[in-house]
Design brief:
- This protein is α+β, with helices and mostly antiparallel strands and about 230 residues long.
- It has a 6-stranded mixed β-sheet, with no helix packed on it. Strands 5-6-7-8-10-9 form a 6-stranded mixed β-sheet, covered by helices on one side.
- The longest helix has 17 residues.
- The two termini are about 15 Å apart.
- The model has no long low-confidence stretch (mean pLDDT about 95).
Length: about 230
């Protein structure tokens, strides 16, 4: 069984408008995931350093960042990052450029999790429906071109309010959606903006939104999770 999660951590700024990285790290530890896709993982201005100091991740969690080498001191790229358990082997990683008016990108990693190879893509798509579709199609085209065909998980904040149109329809052509439920706004979830999608090589065993007391305060999004089993 492989447990994955996605979390728009809102730069570690909670619903109380306070930046508390230790609170965000507490939520990540609660998830107990093998791999987590993060959005808004870095500060927005200046050097755009990681919203959670890197030494805190090393000392106070069982996670390690997938090294992206995008910007010194940053956890991710355009706010997207991947955390994996320290026991997980990172085979390859890549930055995926996306069409956009403002800087957007996705992050990709091929992982070995207890002997199972898994490809993971983390993303944070545009507020504009037109650009969301372009970005979704760019990600899907990139996966088609990439060598190998391991079981694949795509996850992140899609910013899509529709249940079956736009980029949801594009991703749904060849991927199944985990039923994680509503994740935004964390205090009173009304929208299913955060999504986990899997290729045909994976079975979704369980899924949901993580709504602990800390998670409801740590960001304006709840993290979502899914437990997966490779088919065959």
């Amino acid at each position: 069984m492989i447990r994955v999660a996605s979390y728009n951590m809102h730069k570690a700024i909670g619903t109380d408008r306070r930046r508390r990285p230790e609170r965000t790290l507490e939520v990540l530890n609660e998830l107990r995931a093998d791999v987590v896709a993060l959005q808004e993982a870095d500060r927005r201005f200046g050097a755009r350093t990681s919203a959670i100091p890197l030494h805190m991740i090393e000392q106070h969690s069982d996670y390690k960042p997938v090294p992206l080498d995008a910007r010194s001191g940053s956890l991710g790229w355009h706010g997207n990052a991947l955390l994996v358990k320290k026991s997980v082997e990172v085979l390859e990683r890549e930055l995926v450029h996306l069409p956009s008016l403002e800087p957007r990108g996705a992050v990709l990693a091929d992982l070995n999790i207890d002997g199972t190879e898994l490809r993971v893509v983390g993303m944070h798509l545009d507020l504009s429906g037109l650009w969301r579709r372009r970005q979704a199609l760019a990600i899907l085209a990139h996966l088609e071109r990439r060598k190998g065909n391991p079981p694949t998980v795509l996850m992140g904040d899609l910013n899509e309010w529709s249940a079956n149109r736009g980029c949801i329809r594009d991703f749904g052509q060849n991927h199944s959606f985990a039923e994680c439920g509503r994740s935004f706004h964390s205090r009173r979830p009304i929208a299913q903006l955060d999504r986990i999608m899997v290729s045909a090589g994976l079975e979704i065993v369980g899924s949901g939104a993580h709504s602990s007391a800390t998670a409801r305060r740590a960001s304006d999004h709840l993290p979502i999770w899914a437990e997966l089993r490779p088919r065959g």
